[in-house]
Design brief:
251 residues, alpha/beta, 10 helices, 12 strands, Tscrpt_reg_HTH_DeoR_CS, transcription
Length: 251
């Protein structure tokens, strides 16, 4: 069992069984306590578990942590990513913005551009854009209260009605081979519709998503025209991207 698989099983065990000690987890997975502590630290940094006084706890009832908590994780890195993404946008363009906290940071920087039309299913991004001069079109449908966005069939039908010059999205995770992941099919469905109707596709991905496999696959890095991160990708990922003409930017 590699560390990706062990961390997936560890996360499932914690959410199903509740609080666990590192020693108990080490015995369960037949590894050292030091190895388990590294796993717990990686999951904690991604906002998936909570460490407290010698135990690790689930965030009750959450498949992913809520937007407000995720928004403060690696905020400086997300802002640097947003600054690079903003440089890829030109005046008078039509933009798609997907869900997530990094995409919200992109929205906050769009005021420097003139005559943009922004189409989004991300209500946090829409609220940020209300203070700027661009035109905003918001997806209607059932709101996911935890994240204040619209996903699934409502978003799929919404994005099918439009065409955009640039689509900017994020994902829940990326493994060491460049495969991308999300938490559920509804998130993937919304992103695929956005993806299909954007002339240029930009992925914004902060380092907390690296080496993270989740339950739903969501394409690969080389599906995009540009990939922007706050930490350089490993050579084994950058070289294939360059060969396929994918632009890589690191903040």
């Amino acid at each position: 069992m590699d560390h990706h698989e062990r961390r997936r099983h560890l996360l499932t065990l914690i959410h199903e069984s509740g609080s666990q000690s590192p020693a108990a987890l080490a015995r369960h997975f037949h590894v050292s306590v030091q190895t388990i502590r590294a796993d717990i630290r990686a999951l904690s940094e991604r906002g998936l578990v909570l460490r407290r006084q010698g135990e690790v706890l689930p965030f009750p009832g959450r498949e992913n942590d809520d937007f407000e908590r995720r928004a403060i994780i690696n905020i400086d890195g997300k802002r640097r990513i947003a600054a690079l993404a903003q440089e890829l946008i030109e005046d008078h363009q039509v933009l798609f913005l997907g869900t997530g906290t990094t995409v919200e940071q992109v929205a906050l920087r769009l005021g420097v551009h003139q005559d943009l039309q922004v189409i989004t299913n991300n209500l946090h991004a829409a609220m940020a854009l209300c203070h700027q001069s661009c035109e905003v079109v918001v997806c209607g449908g059932r709101i996911r209260r935890r994240d204040k966005d619209v996903i699934g069939g409502d978003a799929w039908r919404f994005f099918q009605r439009y065409r955009a010059d640039v689509g900017i999205v994020s994902v829940g995770g990326m493994d060491d081979d460049g495969r991308l992941y999300d938490y559920n099919d509804d998130e993937v469905m919304a992103r695929e519709a956005l993806f299909a109707h954007a002339a240029r596709r930009v992925l914004v991905l902060d380092r907390t998503k690296f080496a993270t496999r989740l339950c739903c696959t969501a394409g690969r890095l080389d599906d995009f025209d540009a990939v922007i991160t706050d930490q350089a990708l490993p050579d084994q990922l950058r070289s294939p991207l360059a060969a396929r003409g994918v632009r890589f930017l690191s903040a």
